[in-house]
Design goal:
- By secondary structure, the protein is α/β, with parallel strands linked by helices.
- 47% of the residues lie in helices and 11% in strands.
- The strands form four sheets. The protein has an eight-stranded mixed β-sheet with strand order 6-5-7-4-8-9-3-10, with helices on both faces. A five-stranded parallel β-sheet has the order 1-15-12-14-13.
- Helix 7 packs across helix 18 and helix 32 packs across helix 34.
- The longest helix is centred in the N-terminal third of the chain and has 30 residues.
- It starts with a helix and ends in a 27-residue tail after the last helix.
- The structure holds one DNA strand of 9 nucleotides.
Length: 952
DNA sequence: GAGCACTGC
């Protein structure tokens, strides 16, 4: 936990060290220090950001800060005790004392301490809450029995499809490659990188010559040397190498037939035949980013290219060798041979296989094990099977495996089901939001980490599991972080539960430390060699460079589609135009170039175009945002152009220190913790301040979340979960939303509120607004405007869509994004189920917009703003100046009082999704939070009367 | 008068 004291100290020092100071920089440096395992390491990290010249001052500062943090951590550790009580929330009085104090000062309805009545009410509520929780548990028991087969066929097919298109490994490989390419690009930007590297090595040798080096440091130095020598060789080779690259062909020269000196391999007899076979095998299996071991082809087919016309300067070039290189490349097998390879053979060929026995032994010996292994080592698919084969699932016990992404959970489960030879959903299943493909037979269960978190609600001790694998732990989502704290705790009182934390190389030490120095099991080796090229990417005009690269590839390289990563819609549209224009100019002299854009807000029918097979003789270019990085797979892509730029506007990014922003400061600061707090409280964790987070969120963020939950009525004045809070926890939405949903019971409009919630949760992706049809799109949007505000407009959209029987065509005609609507429907369906679960009836009251708006107010009274002057608003609690977003239906109306759904800071502080309310409602729905005095209008003029019916 | 992208429940 970053203490205020240290932060202030850093801010102070910064003036001296870099001549300026800023809170965010201070926060950033502190978090950097926290993540470093020595002050030297910390200094290196500072250096890596490329923003500070490392001089004496900086060095001294770094060492002081690191030591401060170290001391702080020590103190923290000794203070921490596991205070948590594990039974279903007891009504004991152990609770957060801090927020309580704050609350009683500021917000308690009566300033006096607990009256008798209050105490009675509290106890009654707790009783009701526990009774409710028990009912839920009973319900869950019944339900798990008939989960089987529900929707599993559809899910099975879907997963199969996904599997064919994509394997998990390639999904994670591409982002890894991109990440490392970006990281290195940033690290190495500068004038002469080679020189710097040389100096670096010299420095290392000088600085650490006397120290005992760790394995990694040795590796690191060796790596640097390899890079240097390769790069030097490359330089020497100079033009000779360049010739092998793209160039603009002369008119009469056929680029593809350019003569190349035959290699030894080529001179061996039968080469052409082999080459032909290879080509055809590859045609069959070539897919974008297919880095997986199963498809057997080498990685070299993908070039990461960014270059200017004929000036390609590699900053560094190296091959990360694969441990299996000495074996014949399986790629060279004939198709018939390939088929012979049974699933078992494939399993045995994975890098993890030789370690099977050792691994099982280690798992047997240790309760918690950190598993470190490269992507592609087979850990995700194999370890659960090893455990299964070793009998860990005897007696209907389960092995749980978490994945950070839905598709990963699905496709890996499908893969493993296939390997074991069972139907997906039977012994092997997966569980993700909107889709539960498991049955009572399921013993290996893949799921998203968020799903496991939800599972805690109904099974707080995870009694059904003998082993839990947290895969891709290095991705560190908020969910996994919480999961770590929970499982670490569970492991203490369930010694039979095995805990495996699987991670790529970087962070295993940190995981080990967190899990009380758990041993690390390393799986060495990489299945296939991977080539990485870093280019000295020009910072300016990189868009142009991309376009040039595309054309170069098109003109000079063999068939195969191109994928270009760009940062946003605007750039995609620009390059689309340029490419089409240039291709047109070249006319019939070149093969057809099909340019297709893809970004998240593009309607799905247009998105689908990128999956259509490329016609013979043509080449497809896909211009994509990061969307393609993780969530889709395109056949036929052979060339990937990645300029290494990543737009990352963080909440804090307004400091002008852009290079610092490359590392986001903390996900937690941008996330609403309320949800998490509610979940933890529901799990009986009362003392959140001392919850064992791997990286604790800022203290204030936690306290704020607690305060907000109190105001919403989810916690009582002792910080205990109320019945309302327990019910709210069931909903996978932010607390204000779940409060709004629960409040709809009282106003008899739960149907409407659910629709609104669903629509709000697909935020800002409802209306489609293509650049070339702005006017039409805006008109279409305005046609949906409904008196009262944006929530009602969204409701209107949903209802109209529902009336057309959820028609795609209708969406198309009305500039509505069908994909978002489908998601809204999924969300809504889920919410309907949950509403039933928390014992609330579905009721509809669509005409009474006052009721609907009151329900909204009951959840969002925090977000009240009052008209001030000059078209601007002031938030009631913080007197912050805000504006209505220009897209809002109330942009011109400017009602006196309104509730906003969220604040976004772009060019100004905007309220997005606003709804008109009356100030009196605030007293009705949140009397404990608002005093009548705060809500005085300050004007003699009365508000237009709209009570009972909305205008219009 | 606006406008980076993506993941998860």
């Amino acid at each position: 936990m970053a203490s205020k004291e240290v932060e202030l100290w850093v801010q102070d020092q910064l003036h001296d060290v870099i001549g300026m100071s800023d809170r965010y920089i201070a926060e950033f440096l502190i978090s950097l220090a926290e993540k470093s395992n020595s002050s030297g390491h910390f200094l290196q990290k500072i250096q890596d950001t490329g923003t500070l010249d490392v001089n004496d001052k900086v060095t001294r500062f770094a060492s002081e800060l690191w030591n401060k943090k170290k001391r702080e951590r020590k103190e923290e550790k000794s203070r921490k005790k596991n205070i948590r009580k594990r039974e279903e929330t007891s009504s004991s009085s152990s609770s957060d004392s801090e927020p309580e104090k704050k609350r009683s000062n500021r917000q308690s309805p009566s300033s006096s301490s607990d009256t008798e009545d209050e105490e009675k009410e509290r106890l009654k509520d707790l009783e009701e809450r526990d009774a409710f929780a028990k009912r839920l548990r009973d319900k869950d028991k019944d339900r798990t029995k008939n989960k089987a087969d529900k929707g599993s066929k559809k899910a099975f097919e879907e997963a199969k499809k996904r599997l064919e298109l994509a394997e998990k490994d390639r999904r994670s490989m591409i982002p890894d490659l991109r990440k490392s390419s970006r990281r290195d690009y940033l690290k190495r930007r500068g004038v002469d990188k080679l020189q710097e590297l040389e100096e670096d090595i010299a420095d290392d040798e000088y600085l650490f010559s006397k120290d005992e080096l760790t394995e990694r440091e040795r590796k690191d130095i060796k790596y640097k040397k390899t890079v240097l020598s390769l790069a030097k060789e490359h330089r020497k080779a100079g033009d000779k190498l360049k010739e092998g690259r793209y160039y603009m062909p002369d008119e009469d020269e056929k680029p593809l037939e350019k003569y190349v000196e035959p290699t030894a391999e080529e001179q061996r007899p039968g080469f052409e035949q082999r080459q032909w076979e290879e080509e055809h095998v590859n045609k069959g299996v070539m897919k974008f980013g297919a880095k997986d071991a199963k498809k057997k082809h080498k990685e070299k087919e993908y070039d990461f290219v960014v270059d200017e016309l004929d000036e390609i300067e590699f900053v560094s070039m190296l091959q990360m060798p694969g441990s299996h290189e000495e074996e014949p490349r399986e790629k060279q097998m004939s198709e018939a041979e390939k088929k012979k390879m049974t699933i078992q053979d494939v399993r045995k060929s994975l890098p993890i296989y030789p370690f099977r026995e050792d691994l099982l032994k280690a798992i047997e010996d240790h309760q918690v094990l950190i598993i470190e292994g490269e992507t592609g080592s087979g850990k995700t698919t194999q370890i659960p099977q090893y455990l299964y084969e070793a009998g860990y699932t005897k007696g209907d016990m389960k092995i749980g495996v978490t994945q950070p992404r839905r598709v990963a959970a699905m496709s890996v489960a499908a893969r493993v089901a296939e390997e074991i030879g069972v139907k997906l959903g039977n012994e092997v299943g997966y569980s993700i939001r909107f889709e539960d493909c498991t049955s009572e037979r399921t013993v290996i269960k893949y799921m998203t980490d968020g799903m496991l978190l939800r599972e805690f609600l109904s099974e707080p001790d995870l009694a059904g599991y003998t082993a839990l694998i947290v895969d891709e732990a290095h991705e560190r989502t908020l969910h996994t972080d919480i999961l770590f704290g929970l499982v670490k705790d569970i492991a203490r009182f369930r010694p039979d539960l095995k805990l495996l934390i699987s991670s790529a190389t970087l962070d295993s030490d940190k995981f080990s430390e967190f899990f009380d120095d758990a041993p690390i099991f390393r799986i060495p080796g990489r299945r296939y060699p991977v080539d990485i090229f870093y280019t000295k990417a020009p910072e300016a005009d990189y868009l142009d460079a991309c376009v040039v690269s595309v054309l170069q590839i098109h003109l000079t390289q063999p068939d195969g589609d191109i994928l270009v990563f760009l940062t946003g819609q605007e750039e995609i549209e620009t390059s689309l135009e340029i490419l089409q224009e240039r291709a047109r100019k070249l006319g019939n002299s070149i093969k057809e170039l099909i340019v297709l854009p893809i970004y998240s807000t593009l309607p799905s029918d247009l998105q689908a175009k990128i999956f259509e097979p490329t016609p013979p003789g043509a080449r497809k270019v896909v211009l994509a945002t990061n969307i393609a990085e993780t969530s889709l797979t395109i056949d036929g892509i052979i060339y990937v152009i990645d300029p290494g730029f990543c737009k990352q506007k963080s909440y804090n990014a307004r400091t002008g220190m852009e290079s610092l922003v490359v590392t986001p400061i903390s996900k937690i600061q941008r996330t609403n913790l309320g949800n998490v707090v509610l979940l933890l409280k529901s799990l009986g964790i009362n003392d959140l301040i001392h919850f064992d987070f791997m990286d604790p969120p800022p203290h204030e963020t936690l306290v704020l979340a607690l305060e907000q939950l109190y105001a919403l009525g989810a916690l009582n004045h002792k910080g205990e979960l109320t019945k309302l809070g327990r019910r709210m926890a069931e909903f996978p939405v932010d607390p204000m939303m779940s409060k709004m949903i629960l409040a709809s019971e009282k106003y008899k409009c739960s149907e409407e509120i659910l629709s609104i919630t669903a629509m709000l949760s697909v935020n800002n992706a409802v209306f489609y607004r293509p650049k070339d049809k702005v006017v039409h799109a805006d008109n279409a949007r305005m046609n949906f405007f409904t008196a009262g505000g944006d929530h009602l407009t969204l409701l209107n959209v949903y209802n109209q869509w529902a009336e057309t029987n959820f028609s795609t065509q209708w969406c198309f005609e009305n500039f509505i994004q069908h994909r978002s609507m489908r998601r809204a429907r999924d969300v809504r369906d889920q919410l309907v189920g949950l509403l039933e679960r928390v014992e609330i009836e579905l009721t509809s009251n669509s005409m009474d917009t006052v009721a609907i708006r009151k329900a909204v107010t009951a959840g969002f009274f925090y977000h009240t703003a009052k008209f001030s002057k000059g078209g601007s608003y002031k938030t009631v609690k913080h007197q912050q100046s805000v504006m209505i977003h220009p897209n809002s239906s109330l942009f011109e109306e400017q009602p006196r009082w309104l509730i906003y759904h969220e604040l976004v800071f772009t060019t100004k502080e905007f309220m997005r999704q606003v709804i008109e309310i009356e100030n009196q409602w605030l007293l009705e729905v949140a009397p404990h939070y608002y005093k009548a005095k705060e809500l005085e209008d300050g004007s003699s003029r009365k508000m237009p009367k709209t009570v009972g019916k909305s205008k219009d």
